[in-house]
Amino acid sequence: MKILGNLIWLLFGGFAIFLEYMLAGIALCITIVGIPFGIQSFKLGILALWPFGQKIEYMNYAPGCLSTIMNILWLFIGGIWIMLTHVLFGLLLGITIIGIPWAKQHFKMASLALTPFGRRIV
C-alpha cells in the first residue's frame, strides 16, 4: 500500500515538490552561510519524493542551542511559508475521504518544514 501511495503522490505533484526542494537546496548551497539551510532543504526534498513509510524523529543526541538558533533563522527566512503551504494543501486534501492519506503526508512535511534542524527522517 505504501508503494501505491508513493506512486500516486509522485504522479500528482510529489515529483514537482521534490524538484523545487532540490533546486532551492542547490541555490542555498552556493554560499557558505546557506549550506546548513541547503542541507535541510535536501532533507525536505527526500521526504517529498517518497513520504509514505517514512517517519520523522528527533535526533538521539541533544543538538544544543545552535539547532534552536538555526530553527529560528529558518522560521524567519521561509520556513513558516513552507509550513503554511503544506498545511493549506493538507486541509484541501483532507476535505475528501480519498485525500486523507495525502493530507497526513502534507501535515508530516509541515512539521518538518517548520523546524528541520535536530530532526531526521527514518
Structural overview:
With 122 residues, the chain is mainly α. The protein has one domain. Helix content is 71%, strand content 5%. It has helices at residues 2-28, 35-49, 65-94, 100-114, and strands at residues 56-58, 119-121. The protein has a two-stranded antiparallel sheet with strand order 1-2. α1 (2-28) packs antiparallel against α2. The two termini are 18 Å apart.
Helix and strand topology:
Layout: H1 2-28, H2 35-49, E1 56-58, H3 65-94, H4 100-114, E2 119-121
Antiparallel strand pairs: 1-2
Helix pairs in contact: 1-2, 3-4
What is the alpha-carbon Rg in Å?
A: 14 Å
**Total beta-strand segments:** 2
Total number of helical segments?
A: 4
Mean pLDDT: 90
Q: Which strand order does the major sheet show?
A: 1-2
Shape: globular
Task: Please give the domain count.
Answer: 1
N→C terminal distance: 18 Å
In percent, how helical is the residue content?
over 70%
Poorly predicted ranges:
none
Following the backbone from N to C, one meets helices and strands in this order, namely: HHEHHE
Major β-sheet, in short? 2 strands, antiparallel
- Strand composition percent: under 5%
Find the structural class using helix and strand composition.
mainly alpha
